[in-house]
Each structure stands twice: as C-alpha cells, then as structure tokens.
C-alpha cells in the first residue's frame, strides 16, 4: 500500500464530504478521545466507535443513504464507504492523517458475476512512521475486522481466483465516482441495484 499523495496535509483536509470542521463531527471526535493522549490509542478508539456504534445500513435494514461524515453521524448509519468518510473525518479532527482504500469483491460469494466496491480507511500513525489499513464496516455475520498494528485484519478476505483485489493506493479524498453514486439515490434499495463495481 502507498499514499496517493506525498503531501501528508492532503490527508488532513476538511471538505464537502470529509467535513470534520462541522461542529458535531469535531465535537464527537474530541469527546471520544478526551481522556487519551497517545495517537495510536486515539486512532483505535475512533475506529472501534465507528465500527461498533454506527451500524452498516444494510445490516440494520435502514433505507436512508448517507454520504458526508456529518450525515453519517447525524443519521447514525451508512454503508461501508460512508462509514469510511466518517472515520476519516473523526481522525482528521484530532490531527491524525487518514485516507481512503477500496477493495473489489463479490457481493455474493456464490455469484461469479457481480462485483462491488468496498470502502475502508488508511491511517498514518506519525509516532510509528507508517500507514495501516482498517475496516470499520461493522462486525456482523461472522466478520471480525480489527485495529491491529501487527497483522492487517479487514472485513473481507480476498479470493484472487475470483478476481477480487485491493487497490494499493491510499487516496486522500473519496473517489468522485463513488460519491456521485451515494448522492444519486434516496434509498438503500435503489443504491443496492447500482452499487459501484470499480473506481
């Protein structure tokens, strides 16, 4: 894995999607990490909160489609990609650089046709001078994604024999084609018929 940009400041930006300067987002980040001083502890805390406290819309059977970090926080739900927007915003709000990672996998492991794009995060830990990847999708149905410095533990294992793969770049901003898809649909049912399949 490698950062798409050499400028670490690009991984701290507040923009229309990763809107960490929205008061509610900034306040939540500061509230969750108030008792922590260590950068790694802060990153782990924010990751586990998004993973566990913000349910994946499909798991929760919710129809609302969220996109911006502020929307995900306000509505309390999002699909994997939307949850990655919130996690990046919370991390950036406490000065931890964060970016976006994408994985192509089968929506249904028994279906050899339909591929979907799954979104998660890259985090730069300055104290360790390294990037790690974490997946805050939500641990349901046997998923066991974890924050680990020793061994990457994402939500979905890859099967290269089925053409599944992870893009190696850690993007500094959410990919426009993905954002466009989230903005296009009003219900998760509609979105599910037209999930992004690649970048």
In short:
By secondary structure, the protein is of the alpha+beta class. It has helices at residues 23-32, 39-53, 57-60, 69-75, 80-93, 176-184, 188-192, and strands at residues 2-3, 98-106, 115-125, 130-134, 165-166, 169-170. Helices cover 32% and strands 16% of the residues.
Give a structural overview.
This protein has helices at about 25-30, 40-55, 55-60, 70-75, 80-95, 175-185, 190, and strands at about 1-5, 100-105, 115-125, 130-135, 165, 170. It is built from seven helices and six strands. The longest helix has 15 residues, at about 40-55. The mean pLDDT is about 95. Helix 1 packs across helix 5. The two termini are about 15 Å apart. The radius of gyration is 16 Å and the shape is globular. It has a four-stranded antiparallel β-sheet with strand order 4-3-2-5. Strands 1-6 form a two-stranded parallel ribbon. Helices cover about 30% and strands about 15% of the residues. It has a single domain (about 1-190), classed as Roll (C8orf32 fold). It is α+β, with helices and mostly antiparallel strands.
CATH architecture: Roll
Estimate the strand proportion: 15-25%
- Major beta sheet summary: 4 strands, antiparallel
What's the tally of helices?
Answer: 7
Mean pLDDT over the full residue set: 94
Oligomer: single chain
Radius of gyration, in Å, reads 16 Å
CATH topology (fold) name: C8orf32 fold
- Order the strands across the largest sheet as they lie in space: 4-3-2-5
- In the predicted model, the low-confidence regions spanning at least 5 consecutive residues are none
**Helix percentage:** 25-40%
Say how many strands there are. 6
Structural class: alpha+beta
What is the 3D form? globular
User: How far is the first residue's CA from the last residue's CA?
Assistant: 16 Å
H and E string: EHHHHHEEEEEHH
CATH class equals: Alpha Beta
- How many domains? 1
């Amino acid at each position: 894995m490698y950062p798409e940009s050499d400028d670490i400041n690009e991984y701290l930006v507040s923009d229309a999607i990763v809107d960490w300067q929205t008061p509610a987002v900034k306040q939540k980040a500061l509230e969750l990490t108030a008792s922590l001083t260590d950068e790694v502890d802060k990153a782990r805390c924010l990751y586990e909160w998004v993973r566990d406290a913000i349910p994946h819309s499909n798991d929760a059977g919710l129809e609302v489609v969220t996109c911006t970090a502020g929307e995900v926080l306000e509505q309390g739900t999002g699909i994997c990609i939307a949850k990655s927007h919130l996690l990046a915003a919370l991390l950036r709000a406490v000065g931890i650089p964060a970016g976006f990672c994408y994985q192509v996998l089968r929506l249904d492991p028994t279906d050899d046709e339909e591929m979907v794009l799954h979104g998660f995060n890259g985090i730069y830990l300055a104290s360790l001078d390294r990037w790690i990847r974490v997946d805050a999708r939500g641990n349901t149905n046997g998923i066991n994604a974890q924050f680990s410095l020793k061994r990457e533990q994402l939500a979905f294992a890859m099967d290269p024999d089925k053409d599944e793969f992870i893009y190696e770049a850690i993007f500094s901003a959410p990919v426009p084609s993905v954002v466009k898809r989230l903005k296009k649909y009003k219900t998760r049912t509609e979105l599910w018929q037209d999930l992004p399949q690649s970048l």
